[in-house]
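Section 3.1: Structural characterization of target chains.
Under the original work plan, the team committed to producing a structural model for every single-chain target entering the pipeline before any wet-lab resources were allocated. The record below documents one such target. The sequence was received from the expression subgroup and is listed exactly as submitted; it comprises 97 residues.
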Amino acid sequence: MRRQRLDPAVGEIESFAFGHGGNPFLTIELFYLPPYAPESNPDEYLNHDFKTSLRLEPASDNDSDLMQKAMRIMKRLAQMPGRVQSYFRHPLAAYAA
């Protein structure tokens, strides 16, 4: 499979991973993802939950209210470990589990 090198740091990352960063007990597995694959990114499932919760809340009057609302939503999600674990159970995101 041919890979495009879009980021100059890829070579450094591969060198570190394949050289184990100088640590013989360290195992790093690299996963090459397509340039745009939101269904493969567990962060996108978090973003979806966050944005849905944000839309369901009353509109914020200012930046401070918006930040408080965002923090409240993220704290609520942090208290739901089963929900967060579900982001990694999607078949396309299982590589990250």
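Residues 1-32 form one domain.
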